[in-house]
Amino acid sequence: MMNLTIETLLTLLKKKGIDAEIQQETGQIVFAFQVDDEPFPLFIRIFDESQLLQILVFLPVQLKEGREGDMGRLLHWINQSLDLPGFGMEENSRSLFYRVMLPALGMSLDENLLEPFLGAVRVVSTTFLPPIRQLNEGESFEKVRKEVS
Asked: pTM of the prediction?
């Protein structure tokens, strides 16, 4: 178990070969992973009061006007089928994201847990990007759902 601070987390990520840094404005750790030349910005934040660690990745898609209802429906449908749900959207910024919250009881974390969760975040966010894009471009929820099922 490691004492969970932004600094210890950053050191662990760098030790694992991840080129991360602390974002000065927010105090979060930030880095991006690339898939098919597209960046997926990833933020890690510690919530001391609630003893939680947040891993948040933004999808490289801007939510189109008029797609909010269907997108909410799709994200809900995807989340209910996942063991680790966490897709969401922020309508004001038109952003789509995948978020995981990990317990950090006593503000400590098993070092061996971080890498599998980062891997899961990467796999889940990239796996569901194509149907999310398809729906965002105007395809119906029913057609996207049938193709994903």
From this structure: 0.94
